[in-house]
């Protein structure tokens, strides 16, 4: 008999349907992954099981945990189950812990709130559980505060809170989405190990199909609040029936067709660049310390070249980007575009600036919500001495919007009228409109759903054909970098540890760090062979 | 106390910055007031007085020595508790201030206690019932509390409790020699009129700070552990909401100590606000300087206390600075 059995779960929030007829099961010791894109209802399904769906929601159907229908439980009864019979781990470890309480108190609280021991016993269990999730007491005593831990360590604390009472079911909602690949690999391994050791059912919610296919025993695919397909992982991967499942997997391993480069002239030159930050004084009158975020970095980008920059958080990617864009000065070394320095005499060099544009990660936060698209995408005109006016301006706006796959009529709309993917197209249009020599894509596709991401990557390839783009593509997502770049730079602790032709670096990494990164990144199984096999 | 070394280092740093602030403040106060037009001696003797009489008075008051020398002797006096002698009343300033402080300080503390006692429960209640009738009622009441001037409250309170019900006297202060109870009793109406608008502001701050915290991820984590809404609010919400609330409490105390002038006027209380007002009108610069310095000192001390309270509430601040 299964541990969790969700039967015909239908849910609405204020009469707006969110889930329809959701039916699936999780057995003890089994890892079930619910996957789908944003708005598919996967997180809402998890919250319904926890009884933590938003106010104003109404659910029908049954959510059976062993013999108990959770939908018929009162709030008080649910409180007794949460943390005790069902544990939950969340996406954002940086904010999932109370910043003013020690990790020991927070783990012990799970035990105390359910009356499962005295305070001393609870603290002992907390210590044992923290050790179990990989935070041994000699290095991570109970008195530590969350801000003293890294993201991966905090996620371990959250996991410890969830499993302290050895629940029968653990729900993990995008548990590794906010983490670096090497940390992600460790956390996933930990979750799988805990589920196995405690014979716990693990319900994973994730958009990352590579994670799903590596971790899950069974996969549930959701779209628009409905389950479109589910089955054993191996079987489902070989026999995808629903077009949406196929689309998801294809989009996840989407390869673009980059045109060949034509020119070989050097464009951007980063020469022995170092960037220091001041750290707080240790004593009142002591000199402030320095932290070298970028350490003696040199590389070159040629005209028409597409270069990737990968590395984990804190490696100096963002600092380097800011220096290249001329937003900050550097402590030593030079950055030049066509031979002209990006930063001179204490400020950004305008002549260089107009030849560089940037596209950021967040398609929602990157626009002033009160401006129309025409005004938003013409912002870089401020950099020009003679910006186009009148008809020429209107024509350029129309041409650029069409180039990024929008229509000329979109110029009069506001950003809120567009989806995340469309907004990212607007951001690209804004970068493109003054025909810069180089565009920096700073995690530009990281916030997008896989199907939208695939379209944006295709758009980039199209633009390369049309405009011979040169770009620096910064991402933590190795599979994306692999397909849209010619050359890749791998950064660790402020230094470039490896660089070379993308395919070369990925298929035969030389530096141990690159090898670790590539090994840690979850990968999709090669499905082309599998499908051929199934067909024959 | 966990993290004592960090906490100690933080305290010492705050203390150093406190001393620097005080030194700068004393300089600014002294010189700003000195450059303000109006010679105390001329003012005291009248416009038609003889120059040699004025000169004699200036010597007597110690106004004829260089400014920096007067500054040093003033600061030296402040440090030893000698605030100088009032130009107009010819009594020690320290004594005058002490007398007034015995009224103003208890009044400010009384009002602050009342305002906190009203604001915390109402703010928490409103946040817990966001969007429901209770929340709307509390928010409506606080809107009124912010909008209505405190002297109007004061007059209404006098009308109701002093004139109609005769529970309190309409004004004046009986003095602490009549006993603590009697003293507090005579400060009750002024304290309430001072407290109500402050309570309204504090209650709104409390509510919005709590609502911000209620939306945090760690509140959801707490619920996932099995805490009820109420438990999550008390155990995880309140302390995280304290930073903005402490800031406002600090500002309110400073305001209550010096800004009660209208209420002191309405209730005829011999407080600091009236002393400042009278001294400014009389060009009694030394009293003005001393009172202003005292108020600045209080504000800085309160800020110091609030800074320490921040660090007690939030461990991140201990290591950051």
TrEMBL record, chain A:
Alphabetical list of SMART domains matching this protein: AAA
Localization, UniProt: Cell inner membrane
Name of the protein in its database record: ABC transporter ATP-binding protein
Membrane topology: Peripheral membrane protein
Keyword Cell wall biogenesis/degradation annotated: no
Coiled-coil stretches noted in the UniProt entry, renumbered to this chain: none
Family recorded in the similarity comment: Belongs to the ABC transporter superfamily.
NCBIfam families listed in its UniProt record: PRK10419.1, PRK11308.1
Chief subcellular location: membrane
Domain ABC transporter, residue spans: 4-249, 268-518
Protein source organism: Pseudosulfitobacter koreensis
GO molecular function, one term: ATP binding
InterPro entries from the UniProt entry: AAA+_ATPase, ABC_transp_ATP-bind, ABC_transporter-like_ATP-bd, ABC_transporter-like_CS, Oligopep_ABC_C, P-loop_NTPase
Domain of life: Bacteria
Transmembrane regions listed in the UniProt entry: none
Keywords for the protein's UniProt record, in alphabetical order: ATP-binding, Nucleotide-binding, Transport
């Amino acid at each position: 008999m299964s541990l969790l059995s969700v039967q015909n779960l239908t849910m609405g929030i204020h009469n707006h349907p969110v889930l329809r007829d959701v039916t699936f099961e999780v057995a003890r010791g089994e890892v079930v992954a619910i996957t789908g894109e944003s708005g598919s209802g996967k997180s809402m399904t998890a919250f319904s099981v926890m009884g933590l769906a938003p106010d104003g929601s109404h659910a029908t159907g049954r959510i059976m945990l062993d013999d108990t229908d959770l939908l018929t439980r009162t709030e008080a009864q649910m409180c007794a189950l949460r943390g005790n019979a069902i544990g939950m781990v969340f996406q954002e470890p940086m904010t999932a812990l109370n910043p003013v309480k020690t990790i020991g108190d927070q783990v012990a609280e799970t035990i105390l709130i359910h009356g499962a021991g005295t305070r001393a016993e609870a603290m002992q269990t907390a210590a044992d559980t923290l050790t179990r999730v990989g935070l041994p007491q000699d290095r991570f005593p109970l008195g530590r505060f969350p801000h003293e831990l890294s993201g991966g360590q905090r996620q371990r604390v959250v996991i410890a809170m969830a499993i302290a009472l050895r629940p029968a079911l653990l729900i993990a909602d995008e548990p590794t989405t906010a983490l670096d690949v090497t940390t992600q690999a460790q956390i996933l391994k930990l979750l799988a190990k805990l589920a196995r050791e405690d014979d716990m059912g693990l319900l994973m919610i994730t958009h990352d199909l590579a994670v799903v296919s590596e971790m899950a025993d069974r996969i549930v695919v959701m779209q628009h609040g409905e389950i479109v397909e589910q089955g054993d992982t191996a079987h489902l991967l070989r026999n995808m029936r629903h077009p949406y499942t196929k689309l998801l997997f294809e989009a996840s391993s989407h390869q673009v067709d980059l045109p060949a480069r034509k020119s070989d002239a050097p464009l951007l030159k980063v020469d022995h660049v170092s960037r220091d930050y001041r750290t707080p004084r240790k004593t009142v009158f002591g000199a402030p310390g320095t932290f070298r975020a970028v350490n003696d970095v040199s590389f070159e980008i040629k005209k028409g070249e597409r270069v990737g920059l990968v590395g984990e958080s804190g490696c100096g990617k963002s600092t380097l980007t800011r220096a290249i864009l001329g937003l900050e000065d550097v402590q030593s070394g030079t950055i030049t575009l066509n031979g002209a320095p990006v930063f001179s005499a204490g400020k950004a060099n305008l002549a260089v600036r107009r030849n560089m544009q940037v596209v950021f990660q967040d398609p929602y936060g990157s626009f002033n919500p009160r401006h129309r698209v025409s005004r938003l995408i013409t912002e870089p005109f401020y950099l020009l001495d003679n910006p186009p006016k009148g008809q020429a301006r209107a024509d350029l706006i129309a041409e650029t919007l069409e180039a990024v796959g929008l229509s000329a009529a979109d110029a009069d709309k506001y950003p809120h009228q567009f989806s995340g993917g469309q907004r990212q197209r607007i951001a690209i249009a804004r970068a493109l409109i003054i025909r810069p020599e180089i565009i920096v894509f700073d995690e530009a596709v990281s916030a997008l759903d896989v199907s939208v991401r695939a379209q944006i990557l295709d758009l980039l390839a199209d633009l390369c054909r049309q405009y011979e783009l040169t770009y620096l593509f910064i991402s933590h997502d190795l599979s994306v970098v692999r397909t849209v770049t010619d050359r890749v730079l791998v950064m660790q602790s402020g230094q470039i540890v490896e660089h070379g032709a993308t395919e070369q670096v990925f298929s035969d990494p030389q530096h141990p760090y690159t090898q670790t990164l590539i090994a840690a990144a979850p990968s999709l199984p090669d499905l082309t062979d599998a499908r051929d096999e199934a067909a024959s | 106390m966990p993290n004592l070394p960090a906490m100690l280092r933080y305290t010492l740093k705050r203390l150093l910055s406190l001393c620097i602030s005080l030194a700068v403040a004393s300089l600014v106060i002294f010189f700003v007031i000195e450059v303000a037009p109006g010679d105390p001696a001329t003012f005291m003797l009248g416009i038609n007085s003889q120059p040699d009489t004025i000169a004699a008075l200036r010597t007597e008051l110690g106004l004829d020595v260089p400014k920096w020398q007067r500054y040093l002797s003033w600061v030296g006096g402040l440090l030893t508790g000698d605030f100088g002698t009032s130009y107009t009343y010819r009594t020690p300033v320290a004594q005058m201030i002490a007398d007034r402080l015995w009224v103003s300080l208890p009044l400010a503390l009384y009002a602050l206690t009342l305002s906190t006692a009203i604001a915390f429960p109402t703010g928490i209640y409103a946040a817990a019932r966001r969007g429901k009738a209770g929340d709307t009622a509390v928010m409506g009441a606080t809107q009124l509390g912010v909008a209505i001037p405190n002297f109007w409250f004061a007059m209404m309170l006098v009308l109701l409790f002093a004139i109609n019900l005769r529970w309190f006297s309409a004004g004046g202060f009986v003095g602490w020699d009549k006993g603590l109870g009697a003293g507090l009793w005579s400060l009750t109406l002024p304290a309430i009129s001072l407290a109500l608008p402050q309570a309204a502001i504090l209650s709104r701050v409390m509510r919005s700070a709590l609502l911000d915290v209620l939306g945090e991820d760690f509140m959801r984590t707490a619920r996932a552990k099995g805490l009820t809404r109420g438990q999550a609010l008390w155990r995880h919400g309140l302390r995280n909401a304290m930073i903005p609330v402490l800031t406002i409490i600090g500002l309110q105390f400073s305001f209550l100590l010096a800004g009660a002038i209208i209420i002191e006027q309405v209730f005829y209380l011999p407080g600091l606000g009236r002393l400042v007002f009278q001294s400014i009108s009389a060009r009694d610069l030394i009293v003005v300087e001393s009172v202003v310095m005292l108020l600045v000192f209080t504000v800085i001390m309160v800020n110091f206390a609030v800074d320490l309270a921040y660090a007690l509430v939030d461990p991140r601040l201990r290591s950051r600075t």
